[in-house]
Amino acid sequence: MTAINLFLAGDQGGKTPHQVGADAFLMFKMRAFTCDQLNLFPFLFPSADISWDQLPDEVVLRIFFCLPLQDLVRISVVCKRWQRLAFDESLWHSVDLEGMTHTALALQQVLRTGIRRLRCPRSFVEELHLTGRGSLQVVQMDLSSSIIPTLALEDIICRCRLLECLSLEGLQLSDTIISCLAKNTRLQELNLSGCSAFSAPVLTRMLKSCSRIQQLNLSWCTFDNNHIKSVVDNLSSRVTHLNLSGYRESLTLNDVKVLVEKCPQIKTLDLSDSTLLTADCLPVLSQLKHLLHLSLSRCYHIHLAALTDVGIMFPVLSQLDVFGLVQDSQLPSLKREMPHVSINSRPFSSIARPTPASRFVGSTSDRTMWNKKCRLRFGL
Fold first, then answer.
1. Which residues are CB-contacts of 274 (< 8 A; sequence separation ≥ 6)?
2. Residue 323's CB: how many other CB atoms inside 10 A?
3. For 213-267, how does the pLDDT look when each residue is reduced to its tens digit (9 = 90+)?
4. Which residue in 102, 139, 346, 372 has the fewest CB atoms around it within 10 Å?
5. Which residues make Cβ contacts (< 8 Å) with residue 39, sequence separation at least 6?
């Protein structure tokens, strides 16, 4: 029995699939199938008088495609043929491992399957042992808020070359990890919010290399002035959604000027908690002709009087977040000044996040990743 099977308990009275037999196990699982699904497989019933061994791989794979993750793993121990088919990469295109204990064992197995979309947030990985030097096929990956050794994370990221969407929110990184990210030139959405332990020079190289990034979240990282300069000087003109919140003593008006010049296509911009910014930044930001959503929450040197002209300065603006700058009693009068703008409706940023932070954790919609659910999902 493979390592991944050790923590997936069976539902056959404690017996493994090879103990109850292939036909019995599959017929047991047929009870959960709909009539329409059963009609697709008339050969599953005794009257068909056909052996599983006679079914071509394509037919067996079609049957396996209907099984949930745990059962797909269990049937892999029935025989060598089923093990080969159960881990065929066509079945493991997208996997959600959230909620699984002993994540390291599952992660090792899943990464070997040629997976393209991996959702594994809030996981605990003690150690990881990936064999060989082959590259991974992962295109989208969410490891947000996980506990994972930096060396294990390096082993994963350094095998990736095809990443398009990646979230490592809250993780301790390294210069090696950021350098390896630079090799993923197809990156379009990158969430490094709250990350730490990487230098400004390697950040510069990554931003220059990943010129296709459209959504970038670098909020609340352990950045100094050099990091901020690396970001604003090297952002791609393709960036349309940017979160640079949390840099109280680092982000300056000059940085904003460079940012506006480098990224004229920005639609969503979050500069919250930048206490060095004053009302002087508003005329500069007004040069962003496509700006739809602006967040300046807790930029305490921007006073209420300066906000009354925002509706005129930003004619296409539809959302404005200024939490901490406007008291509840002052909101009605500010809304009258800009009736077409929704004010303080988004307390959390969704920029580059695989699952918007506004969703209730544990809900069905919370299990999506960049607006799509994974086909295989671990169920408690």
1. 244, 245, 246, 247, 248, 251, 296, 299
2. 15
3. 999 999 999 999 999 999 999 999 999 999 999 999 999 999 999 999 999 999 9
4. 372
5. none
**Residue 344: which CATH number?**
3.80.10.10
User: Whole-angstrom distance between the N-terminal and C-terminal Cα of the chain?
Assistant: 21
If you average pLDDT over residues 120-145, what whole number do you get? Answer: 91
Amino acid at 177: I
Q: What digits encode the pLDDT tens for the residues 279-294?
A: 999 999 999 999 999 9
| pLDDT at residue 194 greater than cutoff 60 | yes
In angstroms, the CA 149 to CA 170 distance is 13
12 within some domain: yes
CATH number for 16: 1.20.1280.50
DSSP secondary-structure letter at 232? H
b/e map 67-100, b = 16+ CB within 10 Å: bebbbbbbbbbbeeebeebbbeeebbbbbbbbbb
Specify the pLDDT at position 361.
Answer: 46
| Calpha distance 362→225 (Å, rounded) | 38
Q: Which residues contact 62 (CB under 8 A, 6 or more apart)?
A: 40, 41
What does the pLDDT average to over 367-378?
Answer: 91
Entry pTM: 0.85
Tell me, what's the pLDDT at 52? 78
What is the C-alpha to C-alpha distance for residues 292 and 15, in angstroms, rounded to an integer?
Answer: 58
Q: 10 Å Cβ neighbour count for 144?
A: 22
- Among residues 9, 3, 1, 2, which one has the least CA distance to residue 71? 9
Q: Which two tokens stand for residue 320?
A: 């404005």
Q: What's the number of CA atoms in the CB half-sphere (13 Å) around residue 118?
A: 29
Sign of the CA dihedral 274, 280, 282, 288?
A: negative
Q: Give the domain extent around 53.
A: 3-89
* Spatial CB neighbours of 240, under 8 Å, sequence gap ≥ 6: 214, 215, 265, 266, 267, 268, 290
Amino acid 283 reads P
**Cα-based distances in Å from 124 to 33, 70, 106:** 33, 19, 11
